[in-house]
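Weekly sync, protein design subgroup
Attendees: M.S., D.O., the rotation student, P.L. (late)

Item 1: inverse folding check
M.S. brought a backbone from last month's batch and wanted to see whether the design step gives back something sensible before we order anything. D.O. pointed out we never logged the input encoding, so this time it goes straight into the notes. Structure tokens as presented (136 positions):
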């Protein structure tokens, strides 16, 4: 499902396991994990309810730098982020920004075309693996 540049893939696993699987998949491919944020734990600290929601921030300077050399404003959306979250029906989703949408948002040109295509393909692959879905 894609909505306004946001791609959401239903996961076969719970939120924490989905993010654990994403960490394993991306580190195996040579990407770096910069941060993992448990939004539900933060909400719990202030006594507020929030269904399981975890954010993973990851990437690699090689790809991100190419985009920022084209348009530095791309740095606001880098590194890449993926959000695992549980909806009202108990379904778990893994959501991320579509790389082509980010390219359009920042007006990236020909210099970024190959990097954007590689990021898009890579995201699709690692998210599918983490969510336990067919990669086609």
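Designed sequence read out in the meeting:
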């Amino acid at each position: 499902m894609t909505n306004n540049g946001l791609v959401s893939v239903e996961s076969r696993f719970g939120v924490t396991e989905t993010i654990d699987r994403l960490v394993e998949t991306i580190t195996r491919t040579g990407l770096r994990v910069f941060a993992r944020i448990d939004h539900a734990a933060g909400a719990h600290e202030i006594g507020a309810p929030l269904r399981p929601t975890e954010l993973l921030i990851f990437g690699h300077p090689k790809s991100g730098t190419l985009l920022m050399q084209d348009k530095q404003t791309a740095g606001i959306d880098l590194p890449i982020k993926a959000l695992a979250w549980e909806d009202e029906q108990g379904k778990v989703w893994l959501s991320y920004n579509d790389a082509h949408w980010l390219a359009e948002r920042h007006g990236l040109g020909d210099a970024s075309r190959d990097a954007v295509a590689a990021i898009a393909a890579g995201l699709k692959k690692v998210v599918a693996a983490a969510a336990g879905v067919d990669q086609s």
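Discussion: The two ends are 14 Å apart (CA to CA). The mean pLDDT is 95.
Action: P.L. to compare against the previous round before Friday.
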